[in-house]
């Protein structure tokens, strides 16, 4: 059975193919058009997945004529327009099946979790159709709807957008900066109360507000409370900082979602696991709090948790509706993009030679920054060692060096990739190690390692957004990090996405060569070859 999922819009657009219940490919349009979704949102530009459709030529065993079903959370008329945007001729409307936005998020979370025991499945984001979130019980391979946050209630996703903009940053772009900044602040009673009273939790839901004024209502409520609760009354030193606002805003955000989770646990006391999807769960600090709940055995966070994951999510949802015996499985990896088997480069600018992993491991030891381009690109917002910039995390100054090169001014440390057999030695990650393969959660760093790998550890709370790597899933990169460990005694490398700030992660070799040309990276590894500037 061949199912194609498709979406378009002002901040996410793409296609995905599910072949006999297994992900075959999943494309985000921004990787091909080179325009980040937040720029489309800012400019109110509606984007179709045209280049995603054109890029299917790179995928083996895919034929447009063999598609059995087409699915999306958009209505038939909208999907027909997307189809024409792909330039594929008349739309086969008889093959179209609509699914729900949040239902799709939840299906993606549950059916990629591999969980066999009772699971609480949650979707929360800025909004989708008639809901801002939905909650399901996953049991014996099936999902049962429990409750949802409706559009006449306040959105926790919009709350965090408000917090991001309040701090002078841009929604759908800079939320990660708020997460990083929050650890630098402190608890301030009146700021906490202003946020806390801005949005209320009632059982599984948030408080009501006018449907048409939903996001504006959160802003209005907070600003009103902020003025009322401010003891300085704008007449003197305010006694607060951006760090304090981020800290208290993040704290309230975490507490509200934990309230909902605990309420759902009381309704379904048998649940042991949690599967999460929707843009809210890009918040790795929140995910850590959820993982630390005493009764939680395992947490799984969808690798493509935001709306870029919806094409695959819709396809999985429809597959389950058509195949009642379909069961949760574990993803092998997220390498669902395109591979590159041939490319051109300017021989007048670059030198090429075979790649020697021993040489690259020594380069990393000596402080060189390496661009790593290998195999199919990753699906989702995280670079997971196929389109990555890598470095030695132990060298003082590495954080600032890479930040400057990437034109990045961020409070979040870079992420570590760690060999599976050493993960528990370096980080406190006894549970939820499967989701750690996709870099979707924070974990505490063991005390003895905090000063050894400073470039990947938060300077205040000593957490890290880790990626656990296995030889069975990425043998070439595993071989590299193993050799680096043999040389240095450090089984960890710094891993950040292969892009300068504000650009999508590189997709084609030509974009990687620009980074080498501009001295963003010192060496570039593509497949079995290494390139340097002349």
Question: How do the strands and helices of this protein lay out in sequence?
Answer:
Elements: E1 2-7, E2 14-19, E3 22-28, H1 29-33, H2 37-42, H3 50-54, E4 69-72, H4 76-85, E5 96-98, H5 101-111, E6 119-128, E7 131-139, E8 142-150, H6 156-166, H7 175-182, H8 189-198, E9 201-202, E10 205-206, H9 214-229, H10 242-267, E11 273-277, H11 284-291, E12 298-301, H12 310-322, E13 350-354, H13 357-365, E14 370-373, E15 387-391, H14 398-405, E16 415-419, H15 423-426, E17 427-428, H16 433-436, E18 442-445, E19 463-465, E20 467-469, H17 475-488, E21 492-497, H18 509-517, E22 523-526, E23 529-533
Parallel strand pairs: 1-4, 4-5, 6-11, 11-12, 14-22, 16-20
Antiparallel strand pairs: 1-2, 2-3, 6-7, 7-8, 9-10, 13-23, 14-15, 15-21, 16-21, 17-18, 18-19, 22-23
Helix pairs in contact: 5-12, 6-10, 7-10, 8-9, 8-10, 10-11, 13-17
